[in-house]
Amino acid sequence: MKLSDFDYNLPSELIAQYPSPSREDSRLIIFRRGRGDISETRFANILRYLQPGDLFVINDSKVIPARIFGRKVTGARIEIFLIRQIGNRSWTALLRPSKRVKEGDKILVGQDGDEARIVREIGEGKWEIRLSDRIPEWDFIELHGDIPLPPYIKRESEEIDRGRYQTVYASSKGSVAAPTAGLHFTEEILKKIQKKGCTVLSLTLHVGAGTFLPLRDEIVENNKLSYEYIKIRKKVWDEIKLAKKDKRRVIAVGTTTTRVLESLASGAIDDRREETIDGEVWISGSTSLFIRPGFKFRIADALVTNLHLPRSSLFLLVSAFAGRENMIRVYEWAVKRKVRFYSYGDAMFIQ
Length: 351
Known about the structure:
Layout: E1 27-31, E2 38-42, E3 55-59, E4 61-63, E5 67-71, E6 77-87, E7 90-96, E8 106-109, E9 114-123, E10 126-131, H1 137-144, E11 145-146, H2 159-164, E12 172-175, H3 187-195, E13 199-205, E14 228-233, H4 234-245, E15 250-253, H5 255-266, E16 270-277, E17 280-287, E18 302-306, H6 313-322, H7 324-336, E19 347-350
Parallel strand pairs: 1-19, 3-13, 3-15, 4-12, 15-18
Antiparallel strand pairs: 1-2, 5-6, 5-8, 5-11, 6-7, 7-10, 8-9, 9-10, 13-14, 14-17, 16-17, 18-19
Helix pairs in contact: 6-7
């Protein structure tokens, strides 16, 4: 397959730069795969399209304020972009400009000059750093960090992003980008979903910095995704498998949730392990599963998702789920109706 087959034209003014005034007032495109028809409603009306017995699976990962700006003792400005925690106060990070740093350097952060020390270069532009011992680790990150907005949002992060670039159910710290399909849900909508007889279950995929990287090879199959950490309660995974046996519908909220479910079902989990924490068994590991047309879905029956970048792995995933021609047609329809695109944009429910 050619990557150019997954391109579409998007006017830049349709790329949402701010969230809608309220989460539930986002527009919701409804696409029925069996009938091929497209319609539109408000996100708050998603209840109309649910059935008692449906399983809603959400990603509870929480975005961390991963962008930290500091300076060397020489005064040179350095950006630290935290990627993944690898130990107590130790992180994998990107440093910009990387040519100005070396192992052993200290980056001073904030008015009090809290230190972040560069431990070693890992490779592929990544470094290991150790955060200051002066204050608790997460206090350091919350105090000095900014929310890492995607590059297509052409502004610096603001106070509004601390709340709105986060799902209402975010609880597991670790993502550097939001699982954006979940941004439209409110606590009230989640309560109504459960009142209708649906079950809401959670898992975790920490979205990594690789989500911002474009697919570079024109041959789709030659591209690879970065590994991302996942975890899920074993009893949740057992309940999902039971729902499939009972022919109950599993609705994945977002491409991240979809990748976890399909990775588990297909065995595409690296370093898979089970451990008991506070009496509960957890499954964890990492996945780099690249879902593209031709993929056989084993778990997801329906998908709540935002509208994604052309030529991106996320657009290929929804094309695999609903068909490339269908998705090109839906996206062209959305452009004509001036739907808002990408992270802070509107949503789609593919059934």
